[in-house]
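Hello,

Our lab assistant flagged a job as stuck in the queue for most of the afternoon. It eventually completed. Since we weren't sure the result was trustworthy after the delay, we are filing this so someone can double-check. Below is the sequence as submitted and the structure that was eventually returned. Let us know if re-running is recommended.
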Amino acid sequence: MISDAAEYPVNLYPSEQKTGDKARQLRSPKYVQLSTAAAITLGLIPGKMYRTPCTHCLNLLVTYPEGCRANCTYCGLARHREESRSYNERNFIRVDWPTVDYDELLQKIEQKADQGQFQRMCISMITHPSSDADTFTLLEKWTARVPHIPVSILSNPTTLEYNDLLRMKALGTDIFTVALDAATEEIFERTRGKSVDSPHRWEKYWQVLKWAQEIFGAAKFGAHIICGMGETEKDILNLCQKIKDMGGHNHMFAFYPEQGSMMEEWPAVDRGQWRRVQLGRYLIDYRGVFVEDMQFDAQGRVTHFSLEESELENIIQSGLPFRTSGCPGNQADDISACNRPYGDSKPSDILSYPFAPNEEDTKQIKSQMENN
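-- returned structure --
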């Protein structure tokens, strides 16, 4: 069971041990890392996930002994951590990522070791000179061997050009996403830009988003956004509206202070703020509500969502706004295949529900939402 204190060993599948010189040879495209939830779903490591039997998205991460060359202040993979833990032992979005042989992983998926649980696969890029080319290799192999499971790309805009997006689509990418993360340009610069010796630039991220809009089309691109890095609720919902107006979807994450990151002392997101932003994002993305019609107080907090009380109550009771937001699978488009179990919170204090919240859950959500 995944508990607050759960720690799983980082093992190679199926027989190689990650020790000594071997650890320094684990690089994509021969090897990839996968999330703890995906490893449990495939039976590669022991464990059960709290209140959910599996993850429905196989989240993969390109991997190199040199690690990511970016220096994002909130990220467990950032360059500044390279002396504290070897790269393939670092945690990312709160959990460990075991390293596996990609061809053996493909074989396991072809044998349906996941029992048909995966509805989507996602390749996460990092900032590294080989990341682009290796992503193409991983993508091409996947679509040739496992064409029934659609692929998302979590891109690294810093190293991509227009033709790279064209190639990704030609190789079978279904959905293309950009980890914008910061809700404003000022926060982007403070957390992952030039001021922290990182190569990412706000303008390039938006350029790639616009390329994705053109190349992939409506509902086939989106942005990852982290709530709780100093923005107001109005800031982040204005951003959600902008992405929605472009035809994209918003994938929301709650800020969780990653141990060893430069923001490890930054407080986790305020629960009231998070719940109101989750609800606002859902209404913008799926219920035709416009941020211009919402009301905010002087601190930028939502005070009215522009819906009748009874309609809003029904939406809250459904629990849908508070489930993990991400790329869809084979269910309704407002239910994410990428449910990322406990990627932004502990099981004892769930922020993004990887399953349908029950009545007790919605009571707690409503109580949190009313907290200012």
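-- support follow-up --
The delay was a queue issue, not a problem with the job. The result is valid. The longest strand covers residues 173-181. Residues 1-20 have pLDDT under 50 and may be disordered.
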